[in-house]
Each structure stands twice: as C-alpha cells, then as structure tokens.
Amino acid sequence: MSKMSNLWEHTNAEDLSVTRLSADRTVDLVVIGAGFTGCSAALEAARTGASTVVLEAETIAHGGSGRNVGLVNAGLWLPPDDVVAVMGEAEGTRLVEALGKGPSAVFSLVRDFGIACEAVQNGTLHLAHSPAGFRDLEKRFTQGIQLGAPLQLLDREEASRRTGSTQFHGALLDPRAGTVQPRSYCGGLARSAVGLGAEIYQNSPVTRIEREGGDWRVHANGQVVTAQRLLLATNAYHQLAEGACAPEYVVVNFCQFATAPLTEAQRAKILPGREGCWDTALVMSSIRMDESGRLIVGGMGDSEGLGARIHGRWARRKLRRLYPEIGDIPFEHRWRGRIAMTQDHIPKVVEFGPGAYALFGYSGRGICPGTVLGTAAAKALLEECPETMPLPVVRKYAERFKRMKRAYYEFGASLTHAARPGPLG
Predict the structure, then answer these.
(1) CB–CB of 28/50 below 8 Å?
(2) Which domains are present in the chain?
(3) Strand pairing of 356-360 and 223-232?
(4) Does residue 164 carry a pLDDT above 70?
(5) CA distance linking residue 396 with residue 382, whole number of Å
(6) Residue pLDDT, tens place only, 378-418
(7) What is the Cα Rg of the chain in Å?
(8) Is residue 274 classed as helix, strand or coil in its secondary structure?
(9) Nearest Cα to Cα of residue 107 among 69, 79, 70
(10) Rounded to 5 degrees, what angle do the CA atoms 238, 341, 361 make?
(11) Is the pTM of this model over 0.70?
(12) Please, are residues 236 and 223 in contact by the beta-carbon 8 Å criterion?
C-alpha cells in the first residue's frame, strides 16, 4: 500500500479533461475552487444562463471533495437544537430545514445529470459507541422527529444486524441519506456545469484579486478573469492570494483506510444494506462500503504526519475488533483530507466586497452543505439578493488560536488512537 493512494482517485468514473487558463476572460461570475461548493455554484449559474469561469489551483476535487468519506447526510454535526441555540430561532430553523433537504438535492442532481458516482440512498447510521452515545442519539432522535425528519432509533440488536458487528449500543437511521463516491460526484457536477456552458480551468492558482471599475479582476497564470460577481470556494484548501479574503477556520485532519474487496459471503454479513456509518465518539470515526466491496475505515488524524504509524495501527485494531473474520485483510489504500472547522461548527458566508462571497467552514459535513450552499450562493450573487442564502451573510469572521487548536485536535486523535484498543477508539 503506497503512502499516497486515494481510493477515490483510483475508482473515479467522472474524469473531466480541462486545461489551464491561457487567455483573459470576461464573465458574469468567477468561482475560485472546483470542489462541491464551486462546482455546484457553477452548475446553478450555468443553468440560469450566466457566463461562469471556475479557477482551480490543482485539479477538480483536489481538496476535501476528493478525499471525503462520501456520506450524504442531512444537517450538520450539531444537533438541531444546538444550531438554533447558536443562531437564534428564525435563522437556525431556516438553516436546519435547508440542510435537511440536502440529500434530496444531491441525489436529484445525480439522477438529473446521470452522474456516475456509486450513489446509494439506503440511509446512514449514526452509531452509538457507548451507552452515553446512545443517550445522545435519543436526544437527536427526539429533536429530529419534532422537525418532521423520518428518523428511526435502532436498538443494539438491529444495529448489529445492519452493521454486522456486535460492538455498537444502538444507532440512529436517517433514511433520507446515503453514500456516493465523492470524487466522482464532484467530477459529475463539473462535467454537468461545463455541459451547460461553464468554463473550468485546472492548474490555475489565483495570485491576486482586485476591484476595478465596478468589476472583480482575478489573476491566474498571467491572465485575468473579469467578473461582476465572485465566489471564493476553497474551504480547507485555501491558498493565499493578494487581495483575497482569507477564510478563518481550524484545520482538522481525517484519514481513511480501504481494504481489498470483500467476498460476496463477507459482504452479505458486513453492512449488507450499504449504509454509511459514523459514530458518537468525541474522536469520531466512520465505516462504509464502496461499490466493489471494499470496507473503508476512517478516523480523525493525519495518516501522513508524525502520527502516521499510530493511526495505521489503530485502523487495524479497529477492523479486528469490529469484524474479526476480516481483521487481517490487507488495506490497499490510505489517504487523508482536511476539514475546515469553525468554533461553533456552523458554515460561514462572508461578503468581503460588493458581489463577493467567501463560503467555508463545513466542519466535516461537505457534500450536502457544499451542494446546497454553493447553489444558493450562485443564486444570491447573480440575483443580488443575499436574503435568499440559508444562513446569514456577514462582513467578517475571525477564528482565534487556529494553530493551537489544530495541534490540539491532532494530539487528541493520536493520543486516543494510541491508548484505546476499543472498537471505536
């Protein structure tokens, strides 16, 4: 297994061939970043007939969109009541309702544009790693039901049947949700946007942004894209550029390990319904299956940093504890990505100039919020109506002690993975 072996790149079915920016362009909307947010915005803009250019410093879905677990979940990590407590009744409820429709938005795009991304809408399971974790799920269940979400609270026996493991104390099933191959989903959004007239340029890092004569001028590869509207959609993979708003967030690493494909008999017992899963532990982890039957184990931590061996050993211990019958099957792929975490775990949209938004801070929920908010941002910018955004548009946002918090999260993940041999530690 190589150190840099992202499964999603290996199985990507939506590989769009695009070039570098090599000429000046003048358009209605320029988007920086070709991830879920940027490609969703470009697709929405193109659907309305607006001319759009997307500039990507690396390649499509290079960042978190191509390294994601692939869980198409409704809402945020925060329970609905916590979102309302942070944002207030009106704004919090509006965001919760908008993101509750996130899975429907994602799977509708997959169907409408024929995106080949291993899409499975069989629900996701939030797994109780302990009795306290199950009590947390009971609270989430009650809050969700009050909002009309079709959630199901599963006991230990049913959780065992659905996961194929006896190590969980119960689960919360959201049948609206599901899984995708995230790299392919993002690539499909990009392909669909280009098919409707958008232009996407890879290997085109932005070096300077300036305001001139009522327009935005974005410099990349020695060329200039001029536009009335600008969306900065770089999230956790932002690169500094002169004149650009620098999104404020704390970087949290998340790593994944994928086995060789399981046999048909093994797949019939382990996650037979193909639900994607994540747990209630403070140092969160995930399990899911891909279309070829690879079991993917994920957890917080940097598998390419100083704690690489710790996280690798943890993944092996976890696999053996959850599924002893496949405990020694080889891991064929290992990769990691970055999460942009905000202090309150709620995304931010910052208007850093006339007709210019920076959208970031999904705090581990990128697929649905990126799709929903990217689409909404394109509408709000092109229609000059920020009130249509599902969350408040602010003029500035600051995050304190970013480096200290990043080190704290990584140290906590490494310490937990080194010290706890339990099923989800």
Answers:
(1) yes
(2) 1-120+179-249+344-394 (3.50.50.60), 124-175+250-341+400-425 (3.30.9.10)
(3) parallel
(4) yes
(5) 21
(6) 999 999 999 999 999 999 998 888 788 888 788 788 888 88
(7) 21
(8) coil
(9) 70
(10) 60
(11) yes
(12) no
